[in-house]
């Protein structure tokens, strides 16, 4: 479903009134949903523990795309002065190592794995803390007054999942394997949208509002979609 999300992310921001620097943030949030923090628990709760394996398969391209295409989305100016060193970052290195472990079947010793797991599990909560800190600096009325965020939310939570459903339904053989990508496509904007927007000098305030509103609305949209898929 990443190909569908990328296509939507290229087209939709052109029709949203936004500064050039803001378009990249909108594109990023349209492509990258909150797979890790919400995707895995939601699919596990609905489809059982077997769904976790299929969900993690989507995490591999997710991590690679975030630190390549995602960065270029947040900083469109970097496309003109492209530097390959941009892609040599901890996220890419960790993703490549993770893929090597996955495909080779290499097992990390339990104590090392536990430490890495504990550290990794803090990333999304910390991202949400940063999101909350940025939101706290805004007037309360500004959190809900930007109509563009609701356009983003409609595509992120409803339209993209519907497109994914229509595209893959003719090829569906297993209802669970079919439902998982549709459900993952309906997750709210990725929490690391804020962290990366801040790191690469994009509009982190816009990213904070996008993450907050899409997460808030997903409380309603995800259960509705789950009922339909069941």
How would you describe the overall organization of this protein?
This protein has one domain (2-229). The longest helix has 26 residues, at 204-229. The model has no long low-confidence stretch (mean pLDDT 82). The chain is globular, with a radius of gyration of 18 Å. The protein contains 13 helices and no strands. 77% of the residues lie in helices and 0% in strands. With 230 residues, it is mainly α.
Quick rundown:
The protein contains 13 helices and no strands.
What general outline do the C-alpha atoms trace? globular
Radius of gyration: 18 Å
State the total count of DSSP E strands. Answer: 0
- The unreliable regions are none
Q: What structural class do the secondary elements suggest?
A: mainly alpha
**Domains (count):** 1
Task: Estimate percent helicity.
Answer: over 70%
Compute the average pLDDT. 82
SSE order, as H and E?
HHHHHHHHHHHHH
Number of helical segments with 4 or more residues: 13
């Amino acid at each position: 479903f990443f190909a569908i999300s990328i296509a939507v992310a290229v087209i939709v921001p052109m029709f949203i009134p936004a500064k050039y620097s803001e378009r990249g943030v909108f594109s990023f949030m349209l492509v990258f949903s909150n797979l890790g923090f919400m995707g895995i628990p939601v699919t596990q709760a609905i489809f059982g523990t077997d769904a976790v394996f299929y969900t993690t398969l989507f995490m591999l391209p997710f991590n690679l795309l975030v630190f390549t295409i995602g960065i270029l989305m947040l900083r469109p100016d970097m496309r003109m002065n492209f530097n390959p060193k941009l892609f040599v970052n901890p996220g890419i290195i960790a993703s490549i190592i993770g893929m090597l472990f996955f495909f080779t079947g290499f097992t990390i010793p339990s104590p090392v794995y536990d430490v890495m797991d504990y550290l990794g599990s803090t990333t999304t909560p910390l991202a949400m803390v940063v999101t909350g800190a940025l939101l706290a600096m805004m007037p309360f009325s500004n959190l809900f007054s930007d109509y563009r965020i609701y356009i983003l939310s409609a595509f992120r939570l409803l339209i993209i999942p519907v497109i994914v459903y229509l595209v893959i339904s003719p090829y569906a053989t297993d209802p669970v394997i079919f439902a998982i990508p549709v459900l993952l496509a309906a997750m709210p904007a990725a929490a690391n949208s804020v962290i990366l927007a801040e790191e690469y000098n994009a509009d982190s305030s816009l990213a904070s509002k996008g993450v907050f509103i899409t997460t808030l609305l997903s409380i309603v949209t995800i259960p509705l979609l789950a009922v339909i898929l069941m």
